[in-house]
Structures are given as structure tokens and as C-alpha cells.
Write the C-alpha cells for this entry.
Amino acid sequence: MSINVLMPALSPTMEEGKLAKWLKKAGDRVKSGDVLAEIETDKATMEVEAVDEGIIAQILVPEGTENVKVNTPIAVIAGEGEEASAAPAPKVAEAAVPAAVKSTAAPSAPVALAPPDSEIPQGTKMVTMTVREALRDAMAEEMRRDGDVFVMGEEVAEYQGAYKVTQGLLQEFGAKRVIDTPITEHGFAGIAVGAGMAGLKPIVEFMTFNFAMQAIDQIVNSAAKTLYMSGGQMGCPIVFRGPNGAASRVGAQHSQDFTAWYSSIPGLKVVAPYSAADAKGLLKSAIRDPNPIVFLENEIIYGQSFEVPEIEDYLVPIGKAKTVRPGKDVSIITWSIGVRYAMNAAIELEKEGIDVEIIDLRTIRPMDLEAILTSVKKTGRCVTIEEGYPQSGVGAEIAAQVMTGAFDYLDAPVVRITGKDVPMPYAANLERLALPSIPEIVASVKSILYR
Amino acid sequence: MPATRAAPAAKAARKPAAEATPNLPVTAPAVFSREEELQSYRMMLLIRRFEEKSGQMYGMGLIGGFCHLYIGQEAIVTGVQMASKSGDAVITGYRDHGHMLALGMDAKGVLAELTGRRGGLSKGKGGSMHMFSREKHFYGGNGIVGAQVSLGTGLAFANRYRGNDNVSLTYFGDGAANQGQVYESFNMAELWKLPVVYIIENNRYAMGTAVTRASAQTDFSRRGISFNIPGEQVDGMDVCAVKAAADKAISWCRAGNGPYILEMQTYRYRGHSMSDPAKYRTREEVQKVRDESDPIEMVRSRILEKKFASEDDLKKIDGEVRNIVNEAAEFATNDPEPEVSELYTDILI
């Protein structure tokens, strides 16, 4: 009986990858554990091992093919005693197209969703890159510029980053400035804060912000408060960065949005970009900022491609929101992956004649209240979107600010779209229900338009 | 495999500690010159009189909140700082007044911070536990037990990164020595050979809990063994012993050998903080230490014995120290509270 070898998923969020290289060819005998091929995703290169014994009857997807969907048959192994050539040739999955027709962006995350950017001068040359690459470039540029900048964290150096964000940095800057730490968040966060107090400019990568809870005392009690407690003498220029928010199917301990937690702390700045251009410009600003910055990334959008301006030293100011879609009927206030929800909902709502304005906060603390209030005063309606919990969430703060600052302009109550008030479930259907959804946003917007 | 790899290293690390039977230091006490004896006498006396005044002012309601006095432990910071050099970083926990004075920070500024006045070293916004000095490389003054150990390791990291030969003098107590981040820091400090001297001020009580009731291993000099960090026990009541051990530890770190642990065996005469009912130990126990091993008396009798100074000379020093403290108290009492506008300053740069 012949066996199909399928394109494997190499991470919880992988949907497709490149079949980089075949190490076996048709006719080769393979046994369990033999390496068949190398697969590249935007995150990592992995080897595919044979699980079964037999002879490779056919290679279905040639090496060099990009965008091979997970679960696509890539080869056929004929079992013992079978004629290799007798194996039926399965249909090549339509996704396994040659590299020649590769689009500039991953099909699941089209560049079209990238918001237009009024901040970038007309005629600026744009390059397409992922959020992951933009973050890496931001760090590399700042490390070239300032010898006091270094990055430390788990797997940032030799492994090239657990999510590949620090790829190549070790090779360029060496082990002195790209430092693998033991798995001890509390300890290395404290060491980094101490180094920051002594005048260095550490970038601390948390593999995810879930693990930063081990270190939150050093972030809040040491990094954020020392300037005040010292009467202005002792600042700490440090960036704590890493993926925050829901990942995919990783359960309750690895899927949580901490934006509201950090945003309530005086002495911190909290940044959470959506687009690659903002990721780059804001991370560069964060590294230069003399204050402690919590820089919240999102694993789901690491691989998403955007247009990034090819401007030397592209900086985006911290504390400035951006109107990513102008509209007149309702203001959606959001940030990070929330912008993606909002853009998709806006497309649906447009079909029903509803014109949505989307404000990407980009910085949660200090919050650009002026941008929020200006928009809400124009539309008279406000919806917030976040993946965090509803109680004491960022949406609650925005609602209070809008009520205080634009009460007379409101034509309907502020509505908060949030993650549900439950630990993140594992089951796919429950996980979908626990997160904000497009239908939920569409229904909420219509409800406050009384439609 | 790990066992065979660890064996020789652990043996090497245990060497200094194993040589030390409790209360008997490995390093012989330093023999002080006349200047050193008088310098340490003056500093320890300043710390003691300052702390006595603080206790008094706390009782008068001039100092609020928490106030942890260093009385009994003066020899430690005095001896260690005598062994350090300019540019060495210093960080400690909340029992920090003595450290600031030993670093030469202004007594007026320290006491005015205790009373929460605008002339305090943190403009009145830090309090007893939170004072800093860029000039003296003093990084606090930390209120979270054990947090200063990671921070102090980071100060050493910065020295290492810059390639200078300064060390980090990281002080913490026997209570903090049980915190998890201490061991995370030990691991990285040895792994990266960071120049940090961990000075464990073992005053026998973590708040009200005796060391024997809180610590499975009460020989704190051995707490670094599993990381191959050498350590030794020191008579923390004898400033000469402290100085000699600190010299050795600091040289070890400056030479690039990585961290070193000094367990300073000491005793605090006063409560954990001002609000300590002291039900966990007897008056006799405290009195016995005061009578038999007071650090200031020890130096005083050495000075007289060696005829480095007369009773009158010492009285003169006592008078000078009292003047400094009284002037500081007057300043800290009369200096105005911070401007109301200070509430919203110094949050971000």
C-alpha cells in the first residue's frame, strides 16, 4: 500500500511553506527517521523525516516550490513488495504552484490590507516586507547606530529567534551584543534593567509576553518606577519586546493579551504596532527613547507583508495614533491585530453602506486621546476592539475617556469588542468564539447605528 | 555525564567554603593603619548616630512608613567600601541608609528624604527605601526583597560590556538569599563571568524569621556552589575582617574570574523595621551581641590599645559626628515638603 507524504505544519501558525530541497529522489529506499526534504517557512528551516519504510515512488512537488499548503501530498512512498512505479500518482494539489507565480505577499495576508499611510511622503519608494523583517531591520539599524544597544533573551542568538525576529543579528553583531539567556525571565529581565540603569540600552526579547509575567516585578517595580523614586536621577532606557496576545491553538497559558496590564503603569510607554512600517519606525523610536518601553508584537501578524517606505532612518513617533481608514458613520478604535479585524469588518459594512473610520492607536500609553476624541466627535459613535479581557480592559479606558471628553457628541453608547471573559480554550471552535470576530464587529456597529 | 562534569568544578568551588568552619573566616583580618582605624571608626559612628537619630525622629512622627535601621551592621558597608574604588557600582535592599553614608552621600539629603522633604536625595519622592546617586554609582535603595540581586548583576553586566575593571557590589540579606531570582542571577553571573561581589548580610533574621527556620542551607557562603561561585564566611562585626575579605573578593572579580560570594555574619540590634515587636528573640540575645561583639567598640578598643588616638581624640570625633547628624536633623525637620507640582514630574524623561 502506498503512502502519501504530506506537507507538514511546523508551527501552530504555519499555513504554507517552501519545499526548499529534496534529499531523496524517486527510487530511493527510505526508512523511518531518514531526512526526506527541507522545508522553509518565514520562521525557520526544518527537515522532514520519513515516518514509514519503503521506496520513494514519486516526488509530487519539485524542490524550490513556494507556498505549498500544509497537508498537500509532496511525495509517495511505496510499501514493501510494491512496484514503485505502480503507485497511483495523486493529483498535485493546486496550491503547490511553482515559484514563478509567487505573489509578493502570502495569500492569507494580502498587502492590500495594509492601511494607506498619509505620513509617508508621496513618491517614496516602497519595499514589501513582513512585520518580522521590519522588526529585525529596526534592531539592526539601531545596533549599527549605537554600540550601547544590545539584545538579550531566550534563543535570540544561535537559534536565530524563537519566532525568527532576531535572524542574522548574531552573525552581524556577535555574541557580545546578541545574547542567549537561560530560561530565567525574572533574572535576565532584572539584569537588563540593571544594565539599563547603568546607561546601556538593552532590548529584552520575551519569547512571548506570557512568560514576562515571571519578570513583571522587574518591569513594573524596577524599570518603570525608579525614575520617580530617584527624583529624576535614575532613568532606564530599555525595550521589552515580544509577541503578545492570542497565538493559535496553544491554550490558555500561551494566549493572552497583556496590553491593559502594562498600559495602567505610570513610568512605562506601551507600543503595539500593526503594520510593518509602523513596527519598524516605532521600534526604532522605542530603542532611542530614554524611557522603559513595553513593545507588544503579535505572532499572527509576524509573517504578514506590508509596504514599508525605503527611507533612511524611518522613525514613527511614539504616542501618535493614525487614521488608517477615514469614514463618517462610526469610529473603530483599535491597535495591533485589532486593525486587521477592523479592516475586514469595514469591507463588510461598506457593502451595507456603512462608512467606518478606523483609528490605529499604535501607542497605548501615552494614549493619543486627541485623535480618539476628534474622530468620535465627527462620527458620534465609537467601537473599540481588543483581544484582551473585557474587565478593566483598554476599551473600558477608551469608553471612559470618550464619555468624559465627547459626551455631547455621542449618538449611541460606546461598544467594546473584546476577548471573552474566559481563559483561552484549546478547541478550534471554542478558540474562535473566545476571540473577537468579524460578524460580532459588524453586528455591534449596526446595533449602535440602530440598523 | 553531568555528574562527572560537575564534580571537579564543584570541588573547586567548595574549597573556600569548606575551609571555613562557621564563624571562622578564611581570609585573615586586615591589619589597619592608624588612618584606616580612625576612618572606619568615624564612618561606623556616623552611621550609628544617624540611625539612632532616625529612630528618634520616627518616634516623633517626622519619618513615616517603613524605616529599617542598620545599627549593628555598620562594619559591613564600611569595610567593603574601604576596599572598593571609584566607579564601582553599589546596590542594596531597603536597609540602605548606612550604604549611602558610607558612599559619602550627604547626611542632610538622606535624612531629608526620610522626612519626605524637597531637599531629600529623591526630592522627597522616594523615602527611606529609595535613594540613588549617579555620581556615587549608587543604584538604590530597593524595596522588593531580592530584586537588587538581578539589578546588581546587570550593573556588573554593564561594566563587563564596557570592558572597564569596575565591579558591582551587590548587598542583600539572608532573607533575600532565598528568592528565586537570586539563583537565576548567580547562574548568569558565573556563566558570563560578570564582576559582581554578592555580599550577603546575614543578620540572622529575615524580618522575624530566624535563619534556621527559613533556610535549608544556613551557610550562605555555599549558596553558589552549584554554580561554581566561590564563597566564604566573614565575621561581619569586625571591619578588618570585612575589609580583607572584600579586598580578596573584589580582586577576584576585577581580574575577570566572575562573581564571588561573601557571607557577612552580623546582627541587627533594632527590629526589622520600626514597627517590629521583637517577639522572636530575647533581650538577652541582643544584649549579648552588643556587649561582646559590637563593631564600633571593637575598633575603639583597638585604637586605644594601639595608642592610635586618645580618649579625648575619640571624644572629639564623637562630637563632630553628632554635629553632622544634628545639622542633618535640623535640615530634615525644617526643609519644606516638595512642591505640589512635583507630583507629576519624573515619571518619564
User: Anything to note?
Assistant: Chain A has three domains: 3-101, 125-309, 322-448. Residues 3-101 of chain A form a domain with the OB fold (Dihydrolipoamide Acetyltransferase, E2P) fold (CATH 2.40.50.100). The first helix of chain A runs from residue 131 to 145. The interface with chain B takes residues 150, 176, 181-182, 184, 186-200, 217-218, 221-222, 226-235, 266-267, 269, 290-291 of chain A (CB under 8 Å).
